[in-house]
Amino acid sequence: FTHFNLEQALNLIDEVKPKRAYITHISHKLGFHSEVEKQLPKNVFLAYDGLSLEF
């Protein structure tokens, strides 16, 4: 895989069906973080600088 646009990333996430997915390396041209996340499926989030995940 290589760089995806948002639609391609969401399609792959739909195929793989992870419990949670974080989209990284997004362009500021996508829009405001809070507004974009409202449009994403409930298990998909936009990553951001300083994000810390625990497994």
Topology:
Elements lengths: L5 H11 L4 E3 L9 H7 L4 E3 L9
Q: How would you explain this protein's 3D organization?
A:
With 55 residues, the protein is an alpha+beta fold. It has one domain (6-46). It contains two helices and two strands, in the order αβαβ. The protein has helices at residues 6-16, 33-39; strands spanning 21-23, 44-46. It has a two-stranded parallel ribbon with strand order 1-2. Strand 1 (21-23), helix 2 and strand 2 form a beta-alpha-beta unit. The radius of gyration is 11 Å and the shape is globular. The N and C termini lie far apart (24 Å). The model has no long low-confidence stretch (mean pLDDT 93).
- What does the average pLDDT come to? 93
Q: DSSP strand (E) fraction?
A: 5-15%
Largest sheet: 2 strands, parallel
Evaluate the radius of gyration: 11 Å
Number of structural domains: 1
Low-confidence segments, given as residue ranges, are none
Q: What is the tally of helical segments?
A: 2
Give the overall shape: globular
Helix content: 25-40%
What's the arrangement of strands in the largest beta sheet?
1-2
Distance between the termini: 24 Å
The helix/strand series, from N terminus to C terminus, equals: HEHE
Q: Report the structural category.
A: alpha+beta
Number of strands: 2
Which terms would index this structure?
55 residues, alpha+beta, two-stranded parallel ribbon, 2 helices, 2 strands, 11% strand
What is shown here, in short?
With 55 residues, the protein is of the alpha+beta class. It has 2 helices and 2 strands.
